[in-house]
Each structure stands twice: as structure tokens, then as C-alpha cells.
# Entry
Amino acid sequence: MSHPQSYEILLVPSFAEDANADDAEHDAVEPGGAIRAAVVSATGETGASGYPRYSGEGIVADIDTETHTVEALLVDGAELSYGLSARIRERDAEADADR
# Structure
């Protein structure tokens, strides 16, 4: 099975998540809703959680590539602060080529 080579991780306040709880597009984040965004790329390693590890721009994440769920996350070497949650978007090859 082939895993995506990169994702964009968006860190959003939990209240933004609560406000969108009834939306069909729950994973969509309004522009300006994320307080930090980073592109992470596959490292080829498996994290302690057992999922593929992705890293970049100060963020290290173990991501379940089937459910697109962040299973473990470090931001600048620390656990995610209370009140924040992570959302991900799969990056396509064209977006990666533009970087």
C-alpha cells in the first residue's frame, strides 16, 4: 500500500472545532481559522504509535493514512497545547512541486 508523501497539518483552536460539529465538512477549516500550518513529509519511519511518521516545519506527526487521523503529534518538540486540535489535508504532487 502506498502512503501519501506529504500532508498539510493545521492547528486549530478547539472552539473552532466545536462550532463546525454539525457541518458535513467537519475537517474543513475556515480561512484564518488555523493558528499554525505546516507541510510534513513522510520520513519512511514508523512512529511509536505504529503509524507512518511525517515531519516538517517543526512538527512531527504519526498519521493513520487510511482514516487521515493524527495519532501522535509534537509541535516544536512538545505535545500539543490543551485547547488546540490538529486537522490534516493530503498534499498532491503538483502542490509539492510548487514548493
Notes: The chain has a mean pLDDT of 84. The first helix runs from residue 14 to 19.
